[in-house]
Design goal:
With 246 residues, the protein is an alpha/beta fold. The chain has helices at 12-23, 36-48, 63-76, 100-125, 143-146, 153-173, 192-195, 201-205, 217-228; strands at 3-6, 27-32, 53-57, 82-85, 134-139, 178-185, 239-242.
Length: 246
């Protein structure tokens, strides 16, 4: 059974990706930062349907936590063949409200965390190191292209970094049996907006979306599962926008 690690998987896109992965036959590591109850709930849903899953606490912004995460996965589920870098945070407010603390929180989770996890995944998957290859899928955002003016340009910048990382890493590890791609969600109905200070944001901005609606976490998860599948074997350094045309 192939193993998928999904970071930030206790809610939203990460939770739906975990459920979709289990449906596709993966054993799933449901990584979470602090919400153990929700993470265990995802694991329970998977196991009750006959799947295999494990909840692992780790703050991806902490390098020691990431090392522990990959060690636990290897010992408990086996060598991962797919990493989904989904964990991310945002805070709202214009440039004059952005503090050094906010910048640290956003970039340490969204950028540093993705790099830590990608580094460990490459070490685990690389055919050069005796691995069987694999796939890394980064969850970026259409904010990387739009800039998110007046809302969270720091978050947009962090996702711009993820886009650059996706392209560069894809080229760096292409001959090591590892594919690296990204999904860029648009406005999606998830709790990240509430945690960022605006729970009703999707309804506020959905009129700007050509499809005139917000997206669902499952619609994003479907793109992730396709990129992880054998059907996408010749895709690397690629992006799928799940944004309703925005």
């Amino acid at each position: 059974m192939k193993v998928m690690i999904v970071t930030g998987a206790s809610r939203g896109i990460g939770a739906e990706t975990s459920l979709a992965a289990a449906e596709a036959g993966y054993a799933v590591c449901v990584n979470y930062h602090s919400d153990v109850e929700s993470a265990n709930g995802i694991v329970d849903q998977i196991t009750k349907r006959g799947g295999r899953a494990l909840a692992v606490q780790a703050n991806v912004a902490s390098e020691p936590d990431v090392l522990k995460l990959f060690e636990i996965v290897r010992d408990s589920l086996g060598v991962a063949s797919v990493l989904v870098n989904n964990a991310g945070i945002l805070e709202t407010g214009k440039i004059d409200t952005i503090s050094s603390g906010r910048l640290s929180r956003v970039f340490e989770t969204n950028v540093y965390g993705s790099f830590y996890c990608a580094r460990e995944a490459v070490g685990m998957m690389s055919t050069e190191s005796g691995g069987a290859g694999g796939s890394i899928i980064n969850i970026s955002s259409v904010a990387a292209k739009l800039g998110a003016p007046g809302e969270y340009i720091d978050y947009a910048a962090s996702k711009g970094a993820i886009d650059s990382m996706t392209v560069g890493l894809a080229k760096e590890v292409a001959d090591l049996g590892i594919r690296v791609n990204a999904v860029r969600p648009g406005v999606i109905y998830t709790d990240i907006h509430a945690s960022g200070g605006e729970p009703d944001r999707v309804d506020r901005v959905k009129a700007q979306v050509p499809m005139k609606r917000g997206g669902t976490p499952r619609e994003v998860a479907n793109a992730v599962i396709w990129l992880a599948s054998d059907e996408a074997q010749y895709c690397t350094g690629s992006f799928i926008d799940v944004s309703g045309g925005r």
